[in-house]
């Protein structure tokens, strides 16, 4: 049940972002979220080391190129926090090197 719970929590965060943007927009507060994919966090690296894959496939490093594995420090969100993005609110910024638009994410 780990994958459905993880997916549900991601969708909940996007919904909360949109709702908060609607409620706080009248006060001039913008709300956005960032959805990274394939970031080498301790949780993901540990899963890769143990060969864990929720879909029963090969561990992710065998299916994802080194260029697609982002580091946590590369996930800075300076533009959405700047005045230049003052008209952007309620948005989910997907940071994934185009992976989720170019592949079947389940099978990678």
UniProtKB/TrEMBL annotation:
Pfam families: adh_short_C2. The keyword S-adenosyl-L-methionine does not apply. Signal peptide: none annotated. GO terms for molecular function: oxidoreductase activity. Keywords: Oxidoreductase. InterPro entries: NAD(P)-bd_dom_sf, SDR_fam. SUPFAM superfamilies: NAD(P)-binding Rossmann-fold domains. Belongs to the short-chain dehydrogenases/reductases (SDR) family. PANTHER family: 3-OXOACYL-(ACYL-CARRIER-PROTEIN) REDUCTASE (AFU_ORTHOLOGUE AFUA_6G11210), OS07G0691600 PROTEIN. This is Sex determination protein tasselseed-2. The lineage of its organism: Eukaryota, Viridiplantae, Streptophyta, Embryophyta, Tracheophyta.
């Amino acid at each position: 049940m780990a994958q459905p719970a993880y997916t549900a929590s991601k969708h909940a965060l996007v919904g909360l972002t949109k709702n908060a943007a609607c409620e706080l927009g009248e006060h001039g507060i913008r709300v956005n979220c960032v959805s990274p994919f394939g970031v080498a966090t301790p949780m993901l690296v540990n899963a890769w080391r143990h060969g864990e894959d929720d879909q029963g496939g090969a561990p992710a490093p065998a299916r994802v190129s080194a260029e697609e594995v982002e580091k946590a420090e590369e996930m800075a969100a300076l533009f959405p926090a700047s005045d230049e993005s003052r008209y952007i609110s309620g948005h989910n910024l997907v940071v994934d090197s185009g992976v989720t638009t170019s592949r079947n994410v389940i099978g990678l």
